[in-house]
Amino acid sequence: MIRYALQCEHEHGFEAWFSASADYDDQAARGLVECPLCGSRAVIKQIMSPAVAGARKREAGPDLATMQTLIQQAAREARSHVEQNFDYVGDAFAREARDIHEGRSEKREIYGEATPAEVRKLREDGVPCAPLPPDPAKAH
After folding, report:
1. pTM higher than the cut 0.85
2. Which residue has the higher pLDDT, 72 or 135?
3. H or E stretch covering 40
4. Which DSSP symbol is given to 59?
């Protein structure tokens, strides 16, 4: 496995793991690598120092399966919080988010559906929005 430090066009830094360097190149070329904070697919690799084993023994961290379970649990909890506490506005998300941002609609937390082009335009116009974590139960 190879760990890459990545950064999106909005300067959000994050890490991702790939089986081989060719896997990153292939996935990035197909637009499959995206920023977990804003969903941007304009992602580049950052300079990263190699992990070199030192003389001291490092504490063993959680294994990959445990990490995956923890990440899926966090995604479920975040999604559940949004679904329970935010108003679902369906495919009117872009319009409603813009109306709230510009003061034409009451301020409230919303979630819904938007096309990549709508999300890009919202971000360009300074309207805060972020992708909802996927439902791990429906990912398979």
Report:
1. no
2. 72
3. none
4. P
